[in-house]
Every structure is written in C-alpha cells, then in structure tokens.
Please model this.
Amino acid sequence: MPWDCFRAVGSGAGSPPAWVPGLQSNWFGRLGAWNRLLPLGLLLAVALLPARAAPAQAEPRWRRGVFPVVSFFGYTSHFGLRAGPGGAAQPHYGLDMAAPLGSPIRNWWGGVVSDVLAGGACGNGLVISSGPYEHLYCHLAGEVIGGVYRSGEVQVASGQRLQAGELIGHVGITGRTTGPHLHWGIRYRGQWLDPAAILRAMAMARRGG
Model:
C-alpha cells in the first residue's frame, strides 16, 4: 500500500519513549524560563507552534530527538483539518515546515528505513521506523531510482539503518506542493500524532521539564 501524506504502514526496531497523552498546562507561556542550553532553532520552532498542541510528559529521553529541518523558515500547515484542493475540509496528518529549496533534512530519531517513496501526493519520500514509531518525510528533492533515494551525496534505501541527526535528504517540491517544504508525519502504534506535541516534548526534556 503506497504512502502519501494521509496514510502509512510499516514497522521497525529501536524507539523513542512510549507515547503518553499530553499534559494540560501553561507550558506554552513559559518560553522565557527555558534553559540557555536549549538549541535556538528548536526554541524558535516550538515558539511558532499553535498553543492547542499539548506536550507529552517531559521524559528525559525525548532530548535525543532532532529537529528535522536545518534552515527552518516557519510552518505553512499544521496537523488537523484543513481545506483540500476542492475546498472541502480534509485531515492533514503532519506538520509542513517551510525552508529554502535544497535545505538539509535530518533524521528525527535513530531507526531503519521501511519504505522509499516516489510519486503521489508525497512525491519523493522516506519512511523510517523506530520501534512503535514511524516517521514520514515528504516532498524531498532529488530522485528515486530502483527504490533508492538519491540527493547530492545522500543515498538512502529500504532496510538501511540511520542515526538520529543523520542527513537523509534535502527540501524539495516533489509531489503535491506549491512551494519548498518538508511534510513531517509521525505515527505511534498505527495512530497519527501531532508532531507539534513531539517537538514540545523534546523541548521540555531539554529544559528539564
């Protein structure tokens, strides 16, 4: 079954912490108290997220996650319902992160490539499995030939093991998109999560809760 921005399959090994539903708090209003060690890129990225995305518990292991876009501009579409091409509301299972064409994309968490995508709404894309988590990267620059994704010096194939933070591709405009951005989706045990909550969990872990 092909992947696109609205559905996914796959499995793998090695995982982030078990997902815990977000804790309701005034977390969004505490940005000024963040630890100075929190990376500026993640700080700005989280500050731009909608307040409705509740964070997960501040499990220390979340600090291992890596923000996927190096030259981040802003969000062009959030998780949830949005207007489709015909104007009707349809679900959007991820975050759209704008960045300059060709900007590096890093792997969010260590895992194994479970699928390499080409065509459809996603365009060139990768699916990486980290235990019960699956993370999806769409609209990548480059090309897919013989099931292998290539972009510059990057070459990724199914079954390949990747480390957190490893360069996995570049921002492109393949698939259904009107401008360069990364569509980043995350599933946990088959259920789509709001990536904004994941990013908040990462930030909370870095500042110690």
